[in-house]
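Structure tokens please, single chain.
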Amino acid sequence: MSVRPVAEPDIPQVAALYWSHMRRRKGSAPPELQLCLQELYFKNPFRDSAVPSLVYQDKSGKIVGFLGVIVRKMSISGQPIRVAFGGNFVVHPEARSGLAAPRLLGTFMAAEYDVVMTDSANEITRKILERLKWCTIPAMNIHWARPLRPAHCGVYAISRAMGPAVSVGIRLAAKPFCSLADSMAARLSISPFRQTKSPLHSAELDLETLLQCLAEFRKGYSLWPEYDIHSLEWLVSFMERRPARGVLRKVAVRDDSQKIVGWYIYYVKPGTVAEVVQVGGEQKLTKDILGHLFCDAWQQGAIALHGVVDIRRLADFSDKGCFFTCRGGWTIARSPKPEVLEAMERGDAFLSRLDGEWALDPGD
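Here you go.
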């Protein structure tokens, strides 16, 4: 039994392990998943051979454990660093009482890097990593939600707690009433869900503009991601090909002089909660940018929005009617460089869901 770097011929076994025991799906893993994992771990521009993804083999040579690793380039106070994200950590149930999990984690943490982190840890993983001296980062674990269609949100929340057949029936039966109630909520002047025209203007957010925004609006932060047009193009293309989350919308926001003052990126699927990847721009215009996002998502059919807040903008999100929770995918990190963890903990990191493993979820 041993840990070794993953090789391309391992992908079918890794896909089967992921499909059956992480996604808990029946049957064989679809070919699309194998292609996705192959691209993610062998063809992405962030790949670093010094920090490979890992598999654990049993005595017969069967792969019973996998830990995916993606390396991102970042800077701390202008100095380049390597940040290794560990994710898609899965062990076959028959091997969970053995050495597979601790040896995979031990091998991963023994590699040389400036930071190791995850931004999608569940509660079990969080507790394991904290025992291994990782730090949960409070400032990067504040999730926000903003209802857009309150009646639909209520039915959606209730139906999620029921079986699929009952859930579909409830939604269909309630849809006419919810549509009427939400339409009124969007028009009434006293309603917190009223939709009003934004003073800002939208345009398609192309990659060159996004790259410029990431460089311009990171000023004032100590820690930020580093992209070039090639890596950003690959990343956005990968995200656009994950249909489970919906359509990826990328919007640049301009003022009356056509100056770009902000942007946002989010996944939207009509009738569901839209997942926000990133919101950025001039801090003094945060509430206007959020208002533009809310209106856009409402027009796209979203019933609510959900994301991770930049703690510097917490008050603006609150003023725009957002709710907050620390429940969600946990961001946890470990580093031999105390200045990196300190920057994260004081909210001095220009990081979002775009910059970690959340954006690279293979999905269903």
